[in-house]
Design goal:
This protein is mainly beta. It has one helix and 38 strands.
Length: 492
Amino acid sequence: MTFQWWFNGQDMSKYLETNNVERNIGQNRNAILQKLGVSSGKRFQYTSADEGKVTVSFLVRRDMVAKRREIAGLLSSNEPQQLIFGDEPDKYYLAIADDQISLSEKFRHGNGEVVFVVPDDLAHSVELDTVTGQSGTDITVTNAGTAPSAPVLTATMTADNGLVGWVNADGGVLQFGSPDEIDGTQHDDSETVFHHTMLAAPTGIALNAGTVVYKNYLGDATRPNKQAGSFQYAKDTATPMYNRTASDNWAGPSMSGTIAANSQGSNTGNLLWANRINLATNAQASGRIEFNLTSGDTVVLSMVLHDSFYTADVLALDLIAMGKTIWTQNLDRKLFTNGFYSVQIGKLGNQATFRLANIQTLEGGMKTGQTLVQSPTIVGLADASIDGYTVWMTGFSDKTGWTINWSDSIFQWVNVDYWQDLPNRFSAGDELVADVATKTVYVNGVEDGTVQAIDNDWDKFMIQPGENTLQPVASSWAEPFTAKIEYREAWL
């Protein structure tokens, strides 16, 4: 009988015969000791688990050359993948092949060995366990594994609510929202002015008539940069369409629009403008994109990404506030690679926040990777009116342009004070997800760093082996929300 095992979803027994698997027992523990003077022995300080290894020995019969190439491709990965063995099909290791995979070739067959590194040295359950309940009641979670598990905690609102909290028997507390929020008297909320999904041309926008930062090439009024071209809408993205010539300097299409005041009639309130783009450049391409928040014909806050060299692979970021460049830097291309990006501009009183982040995935809520954040204090920003925006995508003359498209744009007034019976921080149908593993919070599928308390006890919410008791908590005046706890059992 052939011993089956799978790596990254591929049944490896189709290509090789497994004759030995070394999985060892428990974790690779490392005890840290300290020598005390000249006394005998050492004092124990602590112990930690190192990465583990799983070794698979195999035999390859016939078609050696072809199989060697196939096996190499199947076992190659850039990050850990699921490794499952046939005698434990309900468990997987997150593993990656390490070092050189050996193969000793003989007549018509060969013996080989692959060593997998398991970074957390744990076996995880294939099945995801789920327990549900309501806020205000204890929820018992049983972990049948032998290692702690990081849960995902989900609260789905049934009505207005100002607080999503979690407490456990170990004294741990997680708090999202405000426990002091009173229904119908005063609270802060966000108001969405627009959300452009780029399924088609947004309504109410102007083409090539925006307020921009880089009006003239090198500041020379005789060499104006141009707002010209159009956008093509396909696959939920807006892609710039250029018509550049050798004398155009920087040229490309812009999209601009007005920003209505918040419900209190103010354009000077706190705000968040979030955009998603897909960008790729190289040593033979150049390009520039401006994200501008404006007041009349003045740029108040701006983030500019640009590759101003068509002879070098450069990606630079400029941050501009109240007409002055306050920060500029060439980004590390090993960290800020080609791909999907989140570009955010925020304002909170006199503090501006600029955030650029790689987007790793949008499944299950946006997850970001390499992130750059600058939060300068700008005198006079609190009183600055924001009544418009412009996004301008350009290329230089007739040189090869970078690849870019724009897939999403949303503008919100945040922390708007209400003195009426208006919706609270959370409304019926809103979903708040707290991922204990990454200490990340999502509201309606979007990462939100504004709702959680600074001193949240994330580390106390690991689901320990055995029985665990958690209690979800809502505002005292709110209807109970539906609570869900998802976790994956793990074994040493």
